[in-house]
Design goal:
Strand order of the largest sheet of chain B: 1-2
Structural class of chain A: mainly alpha
Shape of chain A: globular
Number of strands of chain B: 4
Distance between the termini of chain A: 46 Å
Number of helices of chain A: 22
Structural class of chain B: mainly alpha
Largest sheet of chain A: 2 strands, antiparallel
Radius of gyration of chain B: 31 Å
Helix content of chain A: over 70%
Number of helices of chain B: 25
Shape of chain B: globular
Helix content of chain B: over 70%
Order of helices and strands of chain B: HHEEHHHHHHHHHHHHHHHHHHHEEHHHH
Strand content of chain A: under 5%
Order of helices and strands of chain A: HHEEHHHHHHHHHHHHHHHHHHHH
Oligomer: heterodimer
Number of strands of chain A: 2
Distance between the termini of chain B: 91 Å
Chain lengths: 507, 659
């Protein structure tokens, strides 16, 4: 390989930083923090460096790197990206440096371990989006669990052990089934090629293979469980509120911003890409579950007393749009789903940062105790309000376009489904506005009065973490083409392949 | 980009720029926080008037108007949405109202908000609203219109909740946004349906293809009706028609200039504008048109009946606004599109005037809004009194002031187009309107003073920045009817709107309007309108007092008679006073029942769904513990297990293999 292996650099740059940080003395907390931030910024810059040479009109994967890893079983070290992975990689690197910066204040114990965990987490997340070998993908998918387990379990809230064990066991249960399915497809591939293992884990080759329907139905089911738990889809979502409530702010940001997208990405790339017939057969059920998630999540969010739980349930609702958009198998729907993943990452990540800002001052997240913040912390009120409106889907801000594209795509296929989904436009606005009104409007609550001068407005650091997200929310709201142009060709490819594969199957 | 395109772009850029600047630095301008915002709007007004002149008087852009694309907003495969704008005659008519009332409200607010520490925020929001409203009338496709639709909703939310410390304001702001969202669901679905059936969202193309698609049967009549009703649901929300009317009266929690601008003169007209804009679509469905007329006229009478008994001066005006908007929808429903736009324009001016006047009154009596604590103000607030009187006569429908011409046009068209029931209800509403407006005038200006004695000596006329806008609004309230609507049926407004509604009139089978016949049906209908208006005014004058300073005419109020009437009509009075209990009903259904459902689902989530998850985990743990007992380490136990298993396998083998 003569070219610079830039994808490897993007993926493993945080690991290099983590290794370097390991050599910094633990008492030198400031240096650890800045080194971690510098590392994350380097990965961010590297991921941006992918953009200029990326050809959005070219089908297939770019920046591909391919090396044999375990040749006996055809397992490779193969990386590559298309537009879909690219936008998610950049989302990951963006939210990572912001989360690390946002942890400067809140994380005071074991800073070194936290930063190392966080950087390893970043490796896992980027790896999931760049891996083109199923075995490699599986490893990255599982690598993510370990640092997240530690982040919630060590730096989390009072009930952190329960939450983190639940999170890990639940997701592990799903992904282990996926491993079985990966092995099963590899065996089928090898059997179909006269016992030759070459390419048995290669995504691009598996995609062309055309598995028989029985295997597809089983394998899709296993992949579905893994990703449905990750997204999380109703009824596999109950780990999410617990995990969010206990996780530290940065953990919540990454959990909502990137980890949930691993599921959505997995659906598009692997579950649909490799098993189109099974996807077709399961689609009505998945659409049904998505609709339930959209409405159910929003309704349950209405009565949450805890800010983080409320946003967690809103994520269930918003991610319902992602799965709905994917499984409606229609161009606008799928492009909307991907855009929604990016926008949800930015907006919900920002909402968790906002909750973190308040928690830092009050050490509480109970909505009923707050009130009248507009008078005491006007800048905070404005920024929180901005993201509240973005999350509601106000046109001109990022949330709107993705949501509307999913609506339009759904309507074109099934007006009834679109009717049910649009109900959330009211309920979704209701729970966020209710929370915002209780927090920001009205008179300053006694609880907040009791804090006295501890209740300060946003610090410069907090502003630095949130301002880029404000800018992105406006930019992607006004120019969604920046993302859509990148994902257009791959979405076309997936839908085309899907149509070819299912042409013979009666709907 | 041509100069005119640049000017249209500036029309949007100036207010949004003013918003951004005021939001960033307005706070540091202290008393002068208004300077950027007002400057931006004055410039906007000048540009708008230039464009209006070009469009309406020079016909500079042809019959189709000026269309252009700024950039491609959403490129998603076949779904390509541009940020494109249009200025045609309909837009120009709206621009006159939006920019003029908008500018005067900005000027008025300089004085009205002078003592509010948050004034910089206020002016920033006002500019944001102007941007959104201009986007709404300039948008040339449905999705951009929808975006503007939501953005005016946002500005309205921010301005209603402007005094955020008040719980009632915060609740009203939220209610306005959420009730509007119910309508927006319909609007959004309508847009999706248009894209799915027509394949584009650009106005010119949609309106060109819809009649063809309807004719060829690609869009079935029921689909067309469904489409129209979905869009109409959006209009019902934004223009506060029954049953989504509940948000508008509460919106009066916002500062009064906001009530004048957003909740009377401009934003609430958006629904009327949208239906008028999409007229080629609506005329394809007679049933939808019928329903629009029905909802409109029902709202008109419902709201008028509530306005009868309200004590808060702004609430009376709010219900009056609902009622007048109802008239406009009735006009749209009966196919009198021009009359609807005409009434939209005149109402924009005289209702803006009345609201600003009420703001002046509230300001003068030191933030009192209860009319039972006003009275006798005509002497102390002469300019406010005279200008409000002009507004009241205009809305009551007494010629030659503006309201008469547009209202008479609506009622006359209803009759002539075969909607006699709409006319009949409408004429009753006209009577009620005249009555409650002069009830308001009597209680506020003429009757004995009930002003708090502590405040009484300090009651004063408002500063010039407030009275000048009142005077400027009084002019169109007085003459706009004659200027645009005379001769009746062939005025300027008819000429302007002719190209816009040409196609619709053709579909509805309307020919050229015949000249007004004084001694025919026209004369009878106009006479009836005037008669009921005069009757209403006289009745109110008799009960609540009146005074014409120059002529020396005056009448004392008769509280005893009012009391007796109220007693006799107690059930009606109670119903009207409590707004026919719609708020209580909504509270019961949505807040209480909805809350119960949500709580029930949460319980389900925690105990059933998560219970199952934890149950599985618990079961695994327990079975692990249970199985641990088997693993005893004693060879005898294992041997027993092996033997038992062998027996089971053997029995199974013989049973299964025995056949």
């Amino acid at each position: 390989m003569t070219e610079l292996p830039i994808l490897t650099l993007v993926t493993f740059s945080p690991l290099i930083g983590a290794l370097l940080i390991a050599f910094i003395p633990r008492h030198n907390v400031q240096l650890v923090r800045w080194a971690a931030l510098a590392t994350a910024l380097v990965s961010f810059a590297l991921s941006l460096a992918l953009l200029p040479a990326f050809d959005a009109r070219q089908a297939g994967f770019q920046y591909v790197e391919q090396l044999d890893w375990i040749p006996a079983f055809g397992i490779q070290y193969k990386l590559g990206i298309d537009g879909i992975s690219l936008v998610l990689v950049v989302l990951t690197t963006t939210l990572s440096w912001i989360s690390i910066l946002a942890s400067f204040g809140p994380i005071k114990d074991r800073v070194k371990e936290f930063m190392i965990s966080f950087l390893i987490l970043e490796v896992g997340m980027i790896g999931v989006f760049t891996a083109l070998d199923l075995f490699l993908f599986y490893i990255f998918f599982e690598v993510v669990l370990v640092p997240m387990y530690l982040i919630i379990g060590i730096w989390g809230g009072a009930n952190r052990i329960y939450a983190t064990i639940k999170f890990v066991l639940y997701t592990l249960a799903g992904s282990l089934l996926m491993l079985v399915a990966i092995l099963a497809t590899a065996f089928a591939f090898q059997a179909g090629h006269g016992g030759d293992w070459a390419g048995a884990f290669d995504y691009e080759q598996l995609r062309q293979f055309g598995f028989d329907i029985t295997l597809q139905l089983f394998a899709f089911g296993a992949f579905f469980l893994a990703f449905a738990i990750k997204v999380p889809m109703f009824p596999f979502h109950t780990w999410l509120p617990d995990a969010h409530v206990e996780a530290p702010t940065a953990g919540s940001v990454i959990l909502a911003g990137v980890l949930l997208k691993l599921g959505g990405y997995g659906f598009i790339r692997f579950a649909v890409g490799m098993f189109p017939d099974a996807a077709q057969s399961y689609a009505p059920w998945i659409i049904g579950l998505s609709l339930i998630a959209i409405i159910y999540g929003a309704i349950v969010a209405l009565v949450q007393p805890d800010m983080k739980k409320l946003i967690a349930y809103s994520s269930v609702s918003h991610m319902g749009f992602v799965t709905l958009g994917i499984f409606i198998f229609q161009q606008q729907g799928m492009e909307g789903a991907i855009l929604q993943m990016v926008n949800h990452g930015i907006i919900t990540g920002a909402l968790f940062l906002c909750v973190g800002v308040l928690y830092e001052r009050t050490h509480d997240r109970t909505i009923a105790k707050m009130g009248g913040l507009a008078a005491r912390t006007p800048v905070y009120a404005a920024i929180f309000g901005f993201f509240m409106l973005a999350s509601i889907g106000l046109p001109g801000l990022a949330g709107f376009v993705g949501e509307f594209l999913v609506f339009v795509g759904t309507f074109a296929v099934s007006p009834v489904a679109a009717f049910s989904a649009t109900i959330v436009m009211t309920v979704g606005a209701a729970y966020l506005m209710w929370m915002y009104q209780r927090l920001i409007f009205g008179e300053v609550s006694d609880f907040l009065k009791g804090l006295g001068h501890h209740l300060t407005d946003m610090t410069p650091t907090e502003l630095v973490t949130l301002t880029p997200l404000v800018a992105l929310t406006v930019i992607f709201g006004l120019f969604p083409g920046l993302v859509l142009e990148l994902i257009h060709v791959p979405v076309d490819g997936i839908l085309l392949q899907f149509r070819d594969a299912t042409a013979g199957v009666a709907p | 980009m041509t100069t005119d395109q640049l000017l249209v772009t500036l029309l949007l850029a100036l207010p949004i720029g003013g918003f951004a600047l005021t939001a960033l630095v307005g706070r540091r301008l202290y008393q002068r926080a208004w300077i950027i915002a007002v400057g931006a709007i004055v410039a906007t007004w000048l540009i708008a008037m230039y464009l209006v002149y070009n469009t309406l008087f020079l016909n500079a852009y042809g019959a189709q108007g000026l269309h252009f694309t700024l950039y491609e907003w959403i490129p998603a495969g076949d779904f390509r949405i541009e940020a494109n704008f249009a200025v045609d005659n309909l837009t120009a008519a709206l621009l006159i109202v939006v920019c003029t009332v908008g500018m005067l409200v900005h000027v008025y607010s300089i004085g009205y908000m002078a003592h509010d520490p948050g004034r910089w925020r206020f002016f920033a929001y006002l500019n944001l609203f102007m941007f959104s409203m201009l986007l709404l009338v300039l948008a040339d496709n449905f999705l951009l219109l929808f975006a503007a639709w939501e953005l005016v909703g946002l500005s309205s939310y921010l301005l209603i909740g402007f005094w955020y410390g008040r719980r009632s304001a915060a609740l009203a702001a939220k209610k306005a946004f959420l009730v509007n969202r119910v309508g927006d669901v319909g609007f959004a679905l309508g847009i999706m349906a248009i894209w799915t059936t027509v394949g584009t969202l650009n106005f010119p193309e949609v309106f060109e293809r819809i009649p063809l698609l309807a004719e060829s049967g690609v869009i079935q009549p029921w689909q067309m009706t469904g489409l129209a009703l979905l869009l109409f649901l959006g209009a019902v929300g934004k223009s506060a028609q029954f049953p989504l009317h509940v948000w508008l009266p509460d919106a009066m929690e916002g500062p009064t200039p906001v009530s004048a601008l957003i909740h009377a003169a401009t934003m609430v007209n958006a629904g009327v504008y949208m239906v008028a804009r999409a007229n080629p679509l609506f005329v394809q469905s007679p049933s939808a048109m019928w329903l629009i007329a029905g909802v409109g006229i029902f709202t008109a009478i419902l709201a008028a009946s509530i306005a009868f008994t309200q004590r808060d001066i702004k609430r009376v005006l709010a219900y009056s606004t609902l009622s007048q908007l109802g008239y406009m929808f009735a006009a749209l429903g009966v196919g009198a599109f021009t009359a609807a736009i005409f009434h939209l324009m005149t109402h924009g001016f005289f209702k803006g005037l009345l609201f600003l006047g009420s703001g002046s009154v509230i300001h003068g009596v030191h933030d009192e809004q209860d009319m039972n604590r006003m009275g006798g103000l005509w002497r102390k607030m002469p300019i406010t009194h005279i200008t409000m009187l002009i507004g009241a006569i205009a809305i009551a429908g007494i010629p030659p002031l503006a309201g008469f011409f547009s209202k008479d046009e609506i009622l006359g068209q209803a009759w002539k187009n075969g909607f006699v029931w709409v006319w009949a209800i409408g004429i009753v509403v006209a009577l009620m309107t005249a009555f409650y407006m002069f009830r308001l005038m009597g209680k506020t200006f003429y009757g004995p003073s009930n002003v708090d004695p502590a405040v009484e000596p300090r009651v004063h006329e408002s500063p010039r920045s407030m009275t000048v806008p009142l005077l400027l609004l009084a002019i169109p309230s007085a003459v706009l009817g004659v200027a645009l609507g005379f001769p009746i049926g062939a005025g300027l407004i008819e000429q302007w709107m002719e190209p816009v509604f040409e196609g619709a009139n053709e579909v509805l089978g309307r020919g050229q309007a015949e000249p007004f016949q004084v001694l025919g049906l026209d004369g009878f209908l106009a006479g009836a309108s005037v008669a009921v208006a005069v009757l209403g005014v006289l009745a109110a004058m008799r009960l609540f007092g009146f005074r014409v300073p120059l002529l020396g005419l005056q009448a004392k109020p008769r509280p005893a008679v009012v009391e007796r009437l109220t007693d006799r009509l107690r059930p009606l009075y109670t119903g009207s006073f409590h707004k026919w209990f719609f708020d209580d009903l909504n509270d019961l259904i949505f807040v209480r029942a909805g809350g119960l459902v949500a709580r029930g689902l949460w319980w389900f989530d925690v105990h059933i769904i998560d219970g199952a998850v934890n149950g599985v985990a618990g079961l695994t743990q327990r079975s692990g513990r249970g199985l641990r007992h088997i693993q005893t380490g004693r060879v005898q136990n294992y041997a027993l297990g092996i033997a038992l298993s062998l027996i089971v396998v053997a029995v199974g083998y013989f049973v299964a293999g025995g056949r």
